[in-house]
Amino acid sequence: MSEKIKCALVIGHSIKAQGAVNLRSGISEYQFNKLISPWIVGRINEENIDAVIIERESLKLLPEKINQFNPHFSIEMHCNSSENMLSSGSEVLYWHDSEKGKVFANILLESFIECGYRKRGIKPVYFADKGRVYLSKTTCPAIIAEPFFINNNDEFEYTYLVLEDLVSAYVKGINLIAEYIKNH
């Protein structure tokens, strides 16, 4: 494959529904991912990969917006949260019957683990689960990245210490996924 690999990098949530929030800092998932997404795209090898940042205005319309770009793969950027605010670690979600999605989820997860996050694993998403609209209706293999728990203050503070490493992990994961696509 000699054409550029297209990657849609989706900012999870929206300006109106910003997702989980770190109460100490007041920073939401949306704000955090909107901040780092241009940094990620700026560091991707542009000779091989054409990456675009997509913002979600409506969950229902998101797959159509992604599909118009006709990407080879898509990553929706999130931050995890839990009720007890003590959970930690990285996980990546994929559509339950997408073999490529499963491979891509593993690739990105391993990149996150190199930042020092605890490995929670990859998780399949089914019809009744959150994330199903994006994962099932996007025509390319799609994954949801949850590199850390934003409402765990210790993990949030750690993330800011390794922020450049997290950006590098996204870049490495995207590059490795693109390499996989070219070779398969």
Helix content bin? 40-55%
- Overall pLDDT score: 96
**Alpha-carbon distance between the termini?**
9 Å
The H-and-E topology, N to C, reads as: EEEHEHEEHEHEHH
Shape: globular
Question: How is the main sheet built?
Answer: 6 strands, mixed
What's the level 1 CATH class?
Alpha Beta
How would you classify the helix and strand content by structural class?
Answer: alpha/beta
Tally of discrete structural domains:
1
Strand segment count:
8
CATH fold name, please?
Aminopeptidase
Q: What does this 3D model show about the protein?
A:
By secondary structure, this protein is α/β, with parallel strands linked by helices. The chain is built from six helices and eight strands. It has one domain: Zn-dependent exopeptidases (Aminopeptidase, 3-Layer(aba) Sandwich), CATH 3.40.630.40. The protein has a six-stranded mixed beta sheet with strand order 4-1-5-8-6-7, with helices on both faces. Strands 2-3 form a two-stranded antiparallel sheet. The mean pLDDT is about 95.
What descriptive keywords fit this protein?
6 helices; 184 residues; alpha/beta; 6-stranded mixed β-sheet; Aminopeptidase; two-stranded antiparallel ribbon
Question: Outline of this structure?
Answer:
With 184 residues, this protein is α/β, with parallel strands linked by helices.
Topology, please?
Layout: E1 5-11, E2 21-22, E3 27-28, H1 29-43, E4 49-55, H2 62-69, E5 73-77, E6 90-95, H3 99-113, E7 119-125, H4 132-137, E8 142-146, H5 153-161, H6 163-183
Parallel strand pairs: 1-4, 1-5, 5-8, 6-7
Antiparallel strand pairs: 2-3, 6-8
